[in-house]
Amino acid sequence: MCPLPAGGEGRVGTSKLGLPRPRGKNLAPGELRIRSQVLAGAGDSKEDHPLTSLFTSESTTEGHPDKLADQISDAILDAILAKDPLARVACEAIVTTGLAMVVGEITTDCYVDIPRIVRQTAREVGYTRAKYGFDAETCGIVTSIDEQSPDIAQGVDVGGAGDSGMMFGFACDETPELMPLPISLAHRLARKLAEARKSKALSYLRPDGKVQVTVRYSDAGKPEAVDNVVVAAQHHEEIDTEQLRSDITEHVIDAVIPAELRGSNMRAFINPTGRFVIGGPVADAGLTGRKVMVDSYGGFARHGGGCFSGKDPTKVDRAGAYGARYIAKNIVAAGLASRCEVQVSYAIGVVKPVAIRVETFGTGRAPEAKIAAAINKLFDLSPLGIIKELNLRRPLYRQTAVYGHFGRTDIDAPWESTARAKELAEEVAS
């Protein structure tokens, strides 16, 4: 792997994963070995664990309070787009003990029953009992909705960006869906944990849950094995902790992590404190947009900072990120690079991006400048151009609000298409 651009002489170096680090500080994953203390079940383990070339990503089940808020926001967005594809929506949700709040700016000619949507979403997620502290049937619901600011609308009305900002798209060849392996495995584990609850294979599980996966990489930057897995699973108070750990190992971890990646040294930390009965909104308030790394690349690639959920596609936080992923994935699918990050930057009210940047981390089979020139020629990255290319003015978004927006093969996610890879390769080769 070749290093990232220095971005200023003497300021930045790289780790063995191709990630930037300040020079003069030993932060490279392959260069640090310490004695670490980790929680192994209910006790401490004090073996030496070398922190060589490790990368960690996390995901959550749909019952995590922040993810519940994301799903409420996107369910409201979908309901509005189903009736009014041109609506402007910026919808945020807050969930806490016995209460859901929906706030934001919505401009539309249609009506949707927001309290009904909130209750239906919470019901589908699994919050159906008052003893959970948040119940679809009895929770209070407060709404505070205004129209989109006319100062913002005048820029969007002419096809410009609704806000200034930068978005990143990323793809790599570590998985068939061209995603980093840590976040891909984390999403699969979180989904399997939820499936075990819903199917009643593990009937004592409750909706909240989080998983974390650490992958060990070779000096060449290739994934070698899973170093450890962390699972936090909300449960009924009467289940024995050791039984829960055994069940989750069998039904979730072993069912998801391939044997060739587990090896004999993989560690599992399952409910390390020994108890996770109180969870969901009663334990932690949930808020739309707090899981941006879960939604994107698990921290493996950079992030512009803006969340996706609750935003209609005229919002470049969403459309720009989808467009950048679409292009990065087609670059990798075309064989132009093994790893690619695309940055797109916008100015509020301006139609075209003010900057486009392509980074292939030394894996490119063509000069980055030539790839960038091909992007400028073939793709319209204006907000309306992305909306048209990906057909985004339709109810697509509730399905993206959990288990990630990218690398999805189980849902209608048009930004995951590689239909333009051949055209892109031909343009770069010309």
For this entry, give a set of tags:
four-stranded mixed beta sheet, 430 residues, alpha+beta, GMP Synthetase, Chain A, domain 3, 2 domains
Written description of the protein model:
With 430 residues, the protein is α+β, with helices and mostly antiparallel strands. The protein has two domains: 52-148 and 181-294, GMP Synthetase, Chain A, domain 3; 165-174 and 297-429, 2-Layer Sandwich (GMP Synthetase, Chain A, domain 3), CATH 3.30.300.10. 29% of the residues lie in helices and 23% in strands. It has eleven helices and 15 strands. The chain has helices at 65-83, 114-125, 150-156, 181-198, 241-256, 259-262, 292-295, 316-333, 368-378, 383-390, 421-429, and strands at 12-14, 20-22, 38-40, 43-45, 54-60, 88-96, 99-107, 140-146, 165-172, 205-217, 223-235, 267-270, 286-287, 339-346, 355-359. Strands 5-10-11-12 form a four-stranded mixed β-sheet. A four-stranded mixed β-sheet has the order 8-7-6-13, covered by helices on one side. It is flat.
Concise summary:
The chain has eleven helices and 15 strands. With 430 residues, the protein is of the alpha+beta class. Strands 5-10-11-12 form a four-stranded mixed β-sheet. A four-stranded mixed β-sheet has the order 8-7-6-13, covered by helices on one side. The protein has a three-stranded antiparallel β-sheet with strand order 9-14-15.
